[in-house]
Amino acid sequence: MTTGFFWDERCFWHGGGNYAGMLPVGGLVQPMATGGLPENPETKRRLKNLIAVTGLEADLALMTAAPASREDLLRVHPASYLDDFKALSDGTGGELGRRTPFGPGGYEVATLSAGLALGGLRAVLSGPMHNAYALSRPPGHHALPDFPNGFCLLANIAIAIRAVQAEGLARRIAVLDWDVHHGNGTEAIFYDDPDVLTVSLHQDRNYPMDTGAFADRGHGAGAGFNLNIPLPPGTGHDGYLAAMDRLALPAIRAFAPDVIVVACGYDAAANDPLGRMLATADTFRQMTRRVMALAEEVCGGRLLLVHEGGYSETYVPFCGHAVLEELSGSAVTAPDPFAEVFAARQPDGRFAVFLEGWIKDMEDAL
Ligand code: ZN
Asked: What is the CATH number of domain 4-14+41-365?
């Protein structure tokens, strides 16, 4: 069965306030590798490069996709926001929200990033791909309809979901967000919607600091269709798998979606600068294995992973490689060079006792 890998070089060219030498970026002038923000091209580019070097990419169907259309965007974002974004992007770039700058042409790159997610979702739902991975950049899970934040300009996953619903390809969709930060944008967009289950595993009050509470379960017709699973700093491999097995996956199983979409951030990894968790490449491998098994059980294996955060330039590529090995069933491996040291740093038994109580409190409340 085929695993699609949706990517586009131009997604690596997104950046805010950046120059290439003395040249302002845009058009055919590529920005410098690091844009001054943690969300710079390196983590994603190095993942793409690693799968080329190991040969894993030969076991994937490398694809690109058309940018999301204005019609696609308008199902999630108001015209006023899109117009403001496009106008600034057509000029020198700028900032419309919180810590989410973009350069000239940033609008077009963001629509391409959303388009990769949409292309992946269409491919999985209409048949040619068994599952797929979208290397989207800029990320999307923090983007609110009219307010970009957390490096997210357009709500990539929400745009893809609304499009395939409009096209009649799927109705009930589950989003599992394992980025270390709360998927506040995805939550907000679907908070009243019983057709989209949103589940977010995240570090408690990391970002945003005022969203992501367990008590926030949805509103109106959407009540019960949002599940936040905040975890304490220091949660490692065993804690993540316990939260998956006991909270996240049972919720998705009960929902019985037509397809599962994972907001796949790698910033829960042990050396990420924007998280304080202790997940490893094997954690991401095991989480992928579990969500694939659940997809086989409930929705014919239909599964899309969309790249979100993850800011360790050295580790994201190995975490992503492990995920793609699982998705594709490829025998090509990239042994985790940090495995020994991160295994040694896993929390000890006293933390496991504490975490057991933390998770059980949520389990009992459901
Ligand atoms: Zn994140």
From this structure: 3.40.800.20
Domain assignments of the chain as residue spans, ordered by start: 4-14+41-365
Q: What is the pLDDT of residues 121-130, one digit of tens each?
A: 999 999 889 9
pLDDT digits (tens, 9 = 90+) for 333-352: 999 999 999 999 999 999 99
CA of 142 to the centre of ligand 1 (A): 9
Q: Find the distance separating the first CA and the last CA of the chain, reported in whole Å.
A: 36
Cα–Cα separations (whole angstroms), residue 69 to 112, 120, 183? 9, 15, 23
Please give the distance, rounded to the nearest whole angstrom, from the Cα atom of residue 200 to the centre of ligand 1. 11
Asked whether the whole model's pTM tops 0.85, one would answer yes
Active site members: 142
Residues with CB under 5 A from ligand 1 (ion): 179, 181, 265, 267, 309
Expressed in angstroms and rounded, the spacing between residue 178 Cα and the centre of ligand 1 is 9
State the average pLDDT over residues 282-309. 98
Q: Name the CA dihedral angle for 240, 245, 246, 252, rounded to a multiple of 10 degrees.
A: 110
